[in-house]
Amino acid sequence: MTRFASAQSIAHDIRSGKRSAASTMQAVLNTITQHDSAIHSVTHLFAQQAMQQAHAVDAMVARKEPLPPLAGVPFGVKDLFDIQGHVTTAGSIVLRNTPPAAQDAALVARLRTAGAIPVATLNMDEFAYGFATDNAHYGITRNPHDTQRMAGGSSGGSAAAVAAGFLPFTLGTDTNGSIRVPASLCGVWGLKPTLGRLPRAGAYPFSASLDVVGHFTGTLEDLRNIFYIMADTPAEPEPQDLRVACLGGWFAQNLSPALAAAISRVCAHLGLTGTTELPQTPTARAASFVITASEGGTLHLPRLRAAAEDYDPATRDRLLAGAMLPASTYVQAQRFRRWFREQVHAAFEQVDVLIAPSVMCEAPLLDNPTIMVGGKPASARANLGLYTQPLSLPGLPVLCLPLSNTGTLPLGLQLVAAPGREAALFSLARKLEQAGLAGRYPHNTQQAA
């Protein structure tokens, strides 16, 4: 496979006979085997099964049978999606002795129906609790643009595999930013759809009331097309006359100079003046954290009582802390969530899309995992979600796009819309891409070789 080939181009080439599905799959497997040791995005390869499915696609081509839209296209999944016959570990050894999945996760099944072929499971923070993909059991995933830097998390393996050109698209999950943070740091496209729009069945849960399943791609067109395939709905028309506003206040603090300049260029291109603020954003971030910690801790408490020593110590301590939160604190956070959602929905009566940074800076160094918050160094693992966590609370669709021509390592921008308005996000993203303000960040393959 040519590095950075899109899902659309791979499907077209297989359908037209320009390349076979088997040769495409073999090239993908070879590339991962040769190059993934530098970034460690993959935890398991389904080499034999993937080749068998690729040969089946080639047999369909030979028989001149109609092909589904993603026939022969390889993809990977964050290691918390069920793959039939494979033990779902959710990035932990705690689940290593559980039975293999009896069926695919709902999204994997829909993608298989569309002809796509799962190739690999991808590294993640244990039980999706983190922003670093620093896993005590399966290792650290490194950023393909600079292997001395973080890929972000918790879906870091999924973002890195796309950024490195190993796979055209991958699946991830986002509770508090686990798609948007690594998409930003790795310079790829990512989508956290509206809460509940895509089925979560077969994706190991973290926070039942906040978890969202989504994906990463190398191109906007793939992001859009694959979303509608996974949603099992026809593509919606994209609105052209959009009212856009830039979020300020909380979302304008702590920005690196390069990111501030990039956002200014976007706003100037769109003719935006001034900013919009969401009320009590710091409280929204805190409420999102409380809900996540409480639900995650409650989910894991029975297993923690039986096998706490099997957990990554950092994950274990956070889960135990969450389990000990008073019920009244959790209820208060959910009450605030309802109020905040109403305020955000009211904002969307005046605007169609809100713009906000994804992460305040480029990927932090692994040996100095800090970022600047309030003018002081702060833990990257604890604060990379500074701009994503508040926007998780209302269940909104958020598209993370890679900014172009920033003169730095990758930087990302969040486009935020009202629930169910993903089409507005695709429309604005397309305008920014056409203006040269967004697109795939150029990757130096020598750094991942």
Description of the molecule:
The chain folds into two domains: 7-231, Amidase signature (AS) domain (Amidase signature (AS) enzymes), CATH 3.90.1300.10; 244-448, Alpha-Beta Complex (Amidase signature (AS) enzymes). Residues 444-449 have low confidence and may be disordered. The protein has helices spanning 7-16, 21-35, 47-62, 106-113, 156-163, 180-186, 220-231, 257-270, 281-307, 313-323, 327-347, 380-383, 389-392, 422-434, 445-448, and strands at residues 42-45, 74-78, 117-122, 134-135, 139-140, 142-143, 146-150, 169-174, 189-192, 212-217, 244-246, 353-357, 370-373, 376-379, 398-402, 412-417. The longest helix is centred in the middle third of the chain and has 27 residues, at 281-307. The two termini are 16 Å apart. A hairpin with a 3-residue loop joins strand 4 and strand 5. The protein is α+β, with helices and mostly antiparallel strands. The protein is built from 15 helices and 16 strands. The chain is 39% helix and 15% strand. Helix 9 (281-307) packs across helix 10 and helix 9 (281-307) runs antiparallel to helix 11 (327-347). The strands form four sheets. It has a ten-stranded mixed sheet, sandwiched between helices. Strands 4-5 form a two-stranded antiparallel ribbon. Strands 6-7 form a two-stranded antiparallel sheet. The chain is globular.
